[in-house]
Amino acid sequence: MIDPRDMYYCRSAIRHGSLSFYTASRLLPASVRDPALALYAFCRGADDAVDLHDGKVGAVLRLRDRLDDIYAGRPADRPEDRAFAAVVDQFDMPAALPEALLEGFAWDAMERRYDTLSGVTDYAARVAAAVGAMMTVLMGVREANALARACDLGVAMQLTNIARDVGEDARAGRIYLPLDWLDEAGLSPESFLADPLPTPEVRAMIKRLLREADRLYYRAEAGVPALPRRARPGIYAARFVYAGIGGAIERNGHDSMSYRAHTSKSQKVGWLGQSILRTGVSMVMPGSAVLYAPPLTETAFLVEAAAHTTPVGSVWGEGRAGDLVGIFAALEAKSRGSGPLEGDPV
Predict the structure, then answer these.
(1) Top-tier CATH class for 4-309
(2) Are 130 and 304 in contact (CB under 8 A)?
(3) ∠ CA(254), CA(256), CA(260), 5° rounding?
(4) What is the pLDDT of residue 294?
(5) Which of 64, 291, 306, 342 could be stapled to 222 by a disulfide with Cβ–Cβ 3.0 to 4.6 Å?
(6) What stretches in the chain show pLDDT beneath 70?
(7) What's the N-to-C CA distance of the chain in angstroms?
(8) What is the DSSP letter of 313?
């Protein structure tokens, strides 16, 4: 069980650091809400450790060591690590899921860019769908179709985040839009980053990204009735709150260069109410056949990993370990100043 003092820290961290998730979590039953907040506090803290520091490579390597220690049963003396270790132990969390999240952070440290929408989805699978799969495990659900829809929701939420942050990312020298979309618009990454303006072409790309997110929100919603009844309002809330951010971007004319879209407290309250109503409807209406759609190619490995009932192998020991070993070897070389990483901007 999670130590109450560690749980207090995790709850406070999410309340102040991710109000959208905290709002949605209030509709989860306590048996799921507290482990979910602990999970999210670790993931959010790990993200911040990489994103908010100049030494991104070192931050990722330290996170790898922290994750190793968590799965070895000796978490670092940090409340979020102790809480996540308790979650791993209580729910038999497959190591491949937080491993995928860390791989996404490594890609950020490598300043990787993505040639196609599929590449962006690969990234979203790691930094967001992996969290969706872990959330589903916390609910005691390891059925493949439900896991696939949870991964759809994670990817949709990340695509919404990318659409919201295009301007902010560009000003920081980061780009997550598919490079082939830029090419179609007659833009090079360098020219876009040098002068990130809300041109019609850039707005069209943001609109296109949100359309893909909307498609996945629709697919994800079909999986909510496969979750425990008491957990459904919270997941519907996450779906509506994050889709609402996309609506705010649309109202700004798909200009996320001049504005950072946000939603109001009254809107969030409305979506919470909508989530409760939608749960009631889902209990009396027949389920959607969309539930049985195959997982995205980019998230299939997460579905397979989460469907196991016990952790598979060591954190870096099996499956995709060869790729991960290569990534971390490159990061360690980078940290020693041995040369640029593959994919580094020149």
Answers:
(1) mainly alpha
(2) no
(3) 125
(4) 95
(5) 291
(6) 52-54, 283-286, 309-326, 328, 334-346
(7) 48
(8) S
